[in-house]
Amino acid sequence: MPWLDALFERPPVTWWDLLDIAIVSVLVYELLKLIRGTRASQMAVALGAIVGLFYLSRALDLATVNWLIRNLVGYVVFAAIVLLQTDIRRALVHFGRASFFKYLRRVEPDEDAIEELVVAMETLASRQIGALVIVERGIGLRNHIESGIPLDACLTYDLIVAIFQPTSPLHDGAAIVQGDRIAAAACFLPLSVNPRLARELGSRHRAALGVTEENDAVALVVSEESGTVSLVLDGRIERGLTPEQLRHRLRGLIKRTQAGTERRMAAAMD
After folding, report:
1. Spatial separation of the C-alpha atoms in residues 270 and 267, rounded to whole Å
2. pLDDT at residue 127 tops 80
3. Residue 33 — very low, low, confident or very high, per pLDDT cuts 50/70/90?
4. Measured between alpha carbons, how far is 91 from 94 in angstroms, rounded to an integer?
5. Are the C-beta atoms of residues 182 and 171 closer than 8 Å to each other?
6. Who contacts 226 (Cβ-Cβ below 8 Å, separation ≥6)?
7. Selecting from 1.10.20.10, 3.40.50.620, 3.40.1700.10, 3.40.50.1970, what CATH number does the domain 106-269 have?
8. If DSSP codes are grouped into helix, strand and coil, which group holds residue 176?
9. Pairing relation of β-strands 131-135 and 174-178?
10. pLDDT digits (tens, 9 = 90+) for 41-90
């Protein structure tokens, strides 16, 4: 039966075809993970419905519906870009964190800078003085630095404690650390709009979550209500850290990047 043979006849599948399918599958999977639980997921459902209606109008010969969808699709794309600019920026940042971009990342603060940060956070917590410190890692924070007061000062325990004193004109906002220096203070950060956040989280915690949702920076927060220290990374918060736990977490985050930098330098010398 020739028609049956033609029905099941398919071109041969090569390794390149399998690679092509695997890459597309990974991209679709990562896209679904990025939009899950965001406004983009609802927009994706709506766009899927519009695409389905377009093909249905062609199949049923609904000329008016088909013409309307074809003329509106351009405006829908621009509207989606405007409405989902935050999600698009987060997706691009997520892509920029891929392993093959790691050679572009900066060197992190050294052991002395970590100790200064930990001691400063412990002191502020013991006095129940609110504080927010952002440690820059691979992705730059220039836009946020320019929103504050430039300092470019050596990172020390005394300076951090002085910045966040209630009588200091710099205590509102965040201090941003680059390497072993404080780049700026009183910086404005975007607040997280995640509706699932606990109600007791104040503006400092929401600002820490907001900046780490779109950046790979590490945020350290001291609550003036409870005197607890929190570490925020990738939009996730770890609350109630002891000085030793904070020291361990910072060392783990920083030495991982430094080890990768040393390996790349050794490879270049070879």
Report:
1. 5
2. yes
3. confident
4. 5
5. no
6. 128
7. 3.40.1700.10
8. strand
9. parallel
10. 677 777 788 888 888 888 888 888 888 888 887 777 777 777 666 666 66
